[in-house]
Amino acid sequence: MTKAYDPLASVQAAGPPGTISFVYGLPDPVTFPADDLRLAFEKTFKEKASLALQYGPEQGYGPLIDYLREKMGRGESLKLERPQITLTSGAAQGLDHICTMLTRPGDPVIVEAPTYHESLKTFRDHGLHAAQIPIDEEGLIVGRLLPILEKLKKRGKRIGFLYLIPSFQNPSGITLSLQRRKAILDVCQAFDLPVVEDDVYCDLIYEGKPLPSLFSLDKKGLVLRLGSFSKIMAPGLRLGWMLASPPLVDVFIQSGLRNMGGGANPLIAIALDFYCRNGLLEPHIKSLQDHYRAKRDIMLRSLEESMPGRVHWTKPSGGFFIWVELPPPLRAADLTAKAKEEKLMFFAGDAFFAESPAGQYLRLAFSYVQPEKIQKGIEKLSRLIKRELLSR
Ligand SMILES: Cc1ncc(COP(=O)(O)O)c(C=O)c1O
Predict the structure, then answer these.
(1) Distance CA 107, CA 236 (A)
(2) Cα of 168 to ligand 1 centre, how many Å?
(3) CA angle centred on 200, ends 66 and 222, rounded to 5°
(4) I need a surface site. Which of 45, 233, 337, 375 has the fewest CB within 10 A?
(5) Which atom of ligand 1 is nearest to the CA of 116?
């Protein structure tokens, strides 16, 4: 029998009552601007119903595209022309569409190790082979890129693209340094290799200045940059955008998906345009930065206060995630099972590796868990690690 669809399944999978879960990198529902969105939808139905309920232009709703261009002009000094942007039904759909349009089954793609596990699934869906390159505290180790590209080229392989999450990466929280961004682009330009820049966390920055995107540094039109309303508003909206060179954007606009179904989510796009043009998005992002910074700080402070000396973790300046490295001989998978018995959940890092997993990493998400549970959960985790270290 088919199981009934349960929209809350992932939330319930956060464990039995009383569980503290650091598993889900979901946005915090207390931040969803439901009332302002309701007003924007009311206005949409009142003023633009026939447009909002019709198939939309393939590129997406023009005024929202223009709003996004203005926003990125203000925030990133990025000068975007209309033909460089198209709307997507979220970054996930954008990535899937990139695989459809730019790759063929059997192509290799290059990814960071670790990288977002759901993107790895998308690559598998398309029959792509992900080859991984390790990251350090500055992001992808560029020296490892050239040998892999040369090896694949020698074997006559057509490489799909390099996939990067440069800002506050999921799962590690690490940001790709400016120097590495430039060095990666130099290598990719030499190989004419497309770069997919999945930048869904770039606005959730908690200190310092944002770095220029790979898209803005690219001189050869190789970068496709994915953005999304999921993390800065609500994932249920299923709306995002893709930036690329005009000929590449055109490939997507002219695709079967867009010709058959029209542009992404016209109803949502029109309501979001009303919301954004009311001046609400940028202050909302500012309040999200304060909200998530506070949660991150509680988690970092708790880790500092309770973890034994041999445990290391990243200190992200944005995003949703902290990446913990366990000391040998501890393995994340063993720890996950033991933690569950004590009503504590986190993500063992193995799923985030395309090839041989490293075994000793955990991903802790601070975005979704209630603030008052963070310290208690980290103390539980520290006690568990100390106990396991003593018993070895
Ligand atoms: C790195 C990364 N890319 C893409 C997505 C999905 O974004 P969207 O909701 O816009 O499809 C996520 C969601 O967790 C993510 O972490």
Answers:
(1) 32
(2) 12
(3) 75
(4) 337
(5) 1
3-state secondary structure of 162: strand
Query: Hey, whose CA ends up nearest to atom 7 of ligand 1?
Result: 91
CA 385 to ligand 1 centroid distance, Å: 30
Q: Report whether pLDDT(384) > 80.
A: yes
Share of the chain residues as helix, strand and coil, in percent rounded to the nearest 5: 45, 15, 40
**Separation in Å, CA 163 to CA 27, 92, 132, 220:** 23, 13, 10, 17
CA of 230 to the centre of ligand 1 (A): 7
Q: How many CB atoms lie within 10 A of CB 32?
A: 16
Residues 42, 203, 205: CA angle, nearest 5 degrees: 135
Mean pLDDT of 103-127: 98
pLDDT band for position 357 (50/70/90)?
confident
Helices and strands (DSSP H and E) totals, the chain: 14, 14
- For 158, the 3-state DSSP assignment is coil
The CA angle 254-67-216, to the nearest 5 degrees, is 70
Q: pLDDT category, 392, cuts 50, 70, 90?
A: confident
Closest CA to 117 of 319, 318, 354, 357: 354
CA dihedral 19, 21, 26, 31 (to 10 degrees): 60
For β-strands 344-345 and 20-21, DSSP reports them as parallel
For the CA of 239, the nearest atom of ligand 1: 10
- The 10s digit of each residue's pLDDT in 287-345 is 999 999 999 999 999 999 999 999 999 999 999 999 999 999 999 999 999 999 999 99
Helix (H, G, I), strand (E, B) or coil at 87: strand
pTM over 0.90: yes
Give the CA angle between residues 184, 188, 189 to the nearest 5°. 115
> Where do we find the tokens 């949703």?
320
Distance between CA atoms of 263 and 64, rounded to whole angstroms?
Answer: 12
Contact 178, 292 (CB under 8 A): no
Q: What is the pLDDT of residue 15?
A: 74
